[in-house]
Amino acid sequence: xxxxxxxxxxxxxxxxxxxxxxxxxxxxxxxxxxxxxxxxxxxxxxxxxxxxxxxxxxxxxxxxxxxxxxxxxxxxxxxxxxxxxxxxxxxxxxxxxxxxxxxxxxxxxxxxxxxxxxxxxxxxxxxxxxxxxxxxxxxxxxxxxxxxxxxxxxxxxxxxxxxxxxxxxxxxxxxxxxxxxxxxxxxxxxxxxxxxxxxxxxxxxxxxxxxxxxxxxxxxxxxxxxxxxxxxxxxxxxxxxxxxxxxxxxxxxxxxxxxxxxxxxxxxxxxxxxxx
Length: 276
Fold this sequence. Notes:
The protein has 276 residues and is mainly beta. The protein is built from 1 helix and 23 strands. It has one domain: Jelly Rolls (Sandwich). It has one helix spanning 17-24, and strands at residues 2-4, 25-26, 35-40, 45-50, 57-58, 74-80, 85-89, 92-96, 101-104, 111-115, 124-130, 138-140, 146-150, 159-165, 176-182, 193-195, 199-206, 214-220, 223-229, 233-237, 244-247, 252-259, 268-270.
């Protein structure tokens, strides 16, 4: 499991593009036949992907988290961004279609990822945080969570937001997680850009066309930087960093947070006219 150490705002002015990519971009989230994980010391989040590629993939007990099994002291959100697949948790099998979300709470011992019978191409995005108690396993299919329509076509940010794991949906200790899909002709994923100094947020960009890219903004409002992001790549956004992006075509992204609270609207907006 790759480790990413915490960074602070004072580092941003001296960072090259390569430095920024090494600190905040995860370029290979989905590796066929593997569970690929990255540990960030920002809120001790683990994120990554599981791609069965025709095999059964167990969730490993990686030594970096010092646990007998992965979810001994953690919780996990799983969103399938590929073909239909299954997640078996302590013997109970859950079928996840594209866009479905599964929550697994602290104490689930055995987790196995697989393609559904007769299917190929499941790609499970994984987001984990430390947990202080146990909440029950829950599966939510696309459109069954809290759906919010946000933005405006006139400002190129019309989008449908599906909230899955949150304080009024699937219960968790820390994780807040969902999927946002931009409408055709819209490119901005978050307007206005914002920070929330109480939570780290990670974005997984997906359904980005092969010939398109997303320009992801990060840093402080008076020291903004950008990263060029391709399909199925992820960004780690520290609590002090704003996070927003614009693409050359419409796309979707999984947003996931962990930290001090679970209030989705607890954010400090940064007007585009204030950014430098």
